[in-house]
């Protein structure tokens, strides 16, 4: 995305419309996160890639944490959509959970930078209501599937439900980080990592969540 020409002596650096500049900075942030990870992110570098002055990101997002929080919000929204779509395509409660588990890890592999950022609360705005809301919505996709899988009699016990949600989340989240760290490369060969995840994780989750 290129800034429109202003025709003045100042050039195009800050001639974006507000919404276009916001989007350009988010694209730039995504690129940096993908290449360097959260630790390598720089607000100045995001501005340079967007072709605007170093102060422009702070003007629109308030701070580095403000820009990164917007990227994390988009990440959680994308994850929620991926989990929802995977669940809708499944035919049984067990298949729904397994499909969502695979979708969780595949999302992490497809959006490495965003995924790594989403859980770095030290880099994000504290108490951001939109971030909290979209993160809860993503987790609620798993919780809804687990409620269906367990049945009304077991979900009536909140401790059982919470234990199952945490078990499901920690399983797929841990698998995602192992995949991102390259720990499965030797196991996956000669398959692609995505094919390995789809087959092996589905088998693993089938042990925990078999169809009755």
3D structure, described in words:
- With 212 residues, the protein is mostly helical.
- It folds into 2 domains: 45 residues, Homeodomain-like (Arc Repressor Mutant, subunit A, Orthogonal Bundle); 144 residues, Orthogonal Bundle (Tetracycline Repressor, domain 2), CATH 1.10.357.
- The longest helix is centred in the middle third of the chain and has 25 residues.
- The N and C termini lie far apart (51 Å).
- The N terminus is likely disordered.
Mean pLDDT: 88
Helix content range: over 70%
Q: Uncertain spans, ≥5 residues at pLDDT below 50? A: 1-13
Reading off the top of the CATH hierarchy, the class of the largest domain is best stated as Mainly Alpha
Radius of gyration: 20 Å
Overall shape: it is globular
Largest sheet: none
The percentage of residues in β strands lies in: under 5%
The CATH topology of the largest domain turns out to be: Tetracycline Repressor, domain 2
Number of strands: 0
Structural class: mainly alpha
Number of domains: 2
The string of secondary-structure elements, in order, is HHHHHHHHHHH
Report how far apart the termini are.
Answer: 51 Å
Specify the CATH architecture of the largest domain. Answer: Orthogonal Bundle
Would you identify the CATH H-level superfamily of the largest domain? Tetracycline Repressor, domain 2
Query: What count of helical segments does DSSP give?
Result: 11
């Amino acid at each position: 995305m290129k800034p429109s020409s202003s025709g003045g002596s100042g050039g195009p650096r800050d001639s974006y419309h507000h919404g276009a500049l916001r989007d350009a900075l988010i694209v730039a942030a995504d690129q940096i996160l993908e290449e360097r990870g959260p630790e390598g992110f720089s607000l100045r570098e995001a501005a340079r890639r967007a072709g605007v002055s170093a102060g422009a990101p702070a003007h629109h997002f308030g701070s580095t944490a403000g820009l990164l929080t917007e990227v994390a919000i988009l990440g959680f929204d994308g994850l929620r959509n991926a989990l929802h779509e995977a669940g809708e395509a499944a035919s049984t409660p067990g298949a729904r959970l397994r499909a969502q588990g695979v979708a969780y890890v595949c999302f992490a592999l497809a959006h490495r930078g965003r995924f790594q950022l989403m859980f770095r609360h030290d880099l994000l705005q504290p108490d951001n209501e939109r971030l909290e809301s979209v993160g809860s919505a993503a987790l609620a996709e798993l919780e809804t599937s687990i409620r269906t899988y367990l049945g009304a009699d077991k979900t009536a016990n909140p401790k059982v439900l919470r234990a199952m949600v945490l078990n499901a989340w920690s399983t797929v989240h841990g698998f995602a980080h192992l995949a991102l760290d390259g720990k499965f490369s030797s196991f996956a060969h000669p398959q692609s990592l995505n094919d390995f995840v789809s087959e092996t994780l589905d088998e693993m989750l089938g042990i925990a969540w078999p169809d009755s």
